[in-house]
Amino acid sequence: MNPPNFPSPIQNLLKLASDLRGEGGCPWDQEQTHTSVIPHLLEETYEVVDTIEAGDDSHFKEELGDLLFQIVFHCQLAEERGAFRWDDVVQGIFDKLVFRHPHVYGETNLTSGEEVINQWDELKAKEREIKLGTKATYSKSSILDGIPMALPAIQRSEKIQKKVAKQGFNWPTIEGVFKKFKEEILELEVELTKTNSISNRKAEYDERTEDELGDLFFLLINLSQKLSIDPETCLRKANQKFERRFSILEEMVNSDGKQIIDQSLEELDIYWEKAKKKIKLEVKN
């Protein structure tokens, strides 16, 4: 079998997906389902994010191609089931975006990003009304309907809190979030004390403790929104900062002819401070 050779690159990619799934194709691809390739879809999405943050255009282009093929592959699976085709997906997103941009393709005049977001939400609500039949039917549903359950917890929490905030269900100031945060910290401490976990290196699982800890995570996301900081990006940067410092700590310990596992926490903390100072000097220079 020769590889596809159409004038259009997307035609080649669509035919390639069909070839992989068809007779004489790839045994692995032939075994896959929408569900089985979910991990690959997620992995490729995160790899795209990594290249964006790294500012690596060469790999960015490559990872976008990998992500595009995931979409093409799902379209191939759907076409085989008689559900929809690639053209249906493309036309659907085209029509949706035209409908949601009347300030570009219509007579609506908007001058700020906030106005665009508000209009976007209104148009999405109209779309739901159309899908559900009537406005009366839609009014009985929750404003939280439509937030995908499969979203990562941080992202889903963001969407939940943004939606309820637009209904006025939110603290008007950061002070209110901090006050609630202090309350939740105390409640968590009480639960840890009850289970004798606060002084143990490894505590047993406790449902109440999990509940209180979850409240703290939820509040941190609320605080990040108040500060206009993306929590996912914030946490990724914190991870990267920790990894950088710890890798330097490892180098220092190894250069002293020691093993990390043999060092006390106090000794490792000294190395940690040295690693922080080294990074600060590198930044200055």
Describe what you observe in this structure.
- This protein is mainly α.
- The chain contains 13 helices and no strands.
- It has helices at residues 9-21, 27-31, 38-54, 57-81, 86-99, 102-105, 113-132, 135-139, 153-165, 174-194, 207-226, 231-255, 265-284.
Pick out its properties.
285 residues, mainly alpha, 13 helices, 71% helix
Principal-axes shape call: extended
What pattern of helices and strands is seen along the backbone? Answer: HHHHHHHHHHHHH
Helix content: over 70%
Structural class: mainly alpha
The overall average pLDDT, rounded, is 90
Count the strands? Answer: 0
Radius of gyration: 26 Å
Span from first to last CA?
A: 57 Å
Into which percentage range does the β-strand content fall? under 5%
Structure, briefly:
This protein is mainly α and 285 residues long. The protein has 13 helices and no strands.
Task: Please render the helix and strand layout as text.
Elements: H1 9-21, H2 27-31, H3 38-54, H4 57-81, H5 86-99, H6 102-105, H7 113-132, H8 135-139, H9 153-165, H10 174-194, H11 207-226, H12 231-255, H13 265-284
Helix pairs in contact: 1-4, 3-4, 9-11, 10-11, 12-13
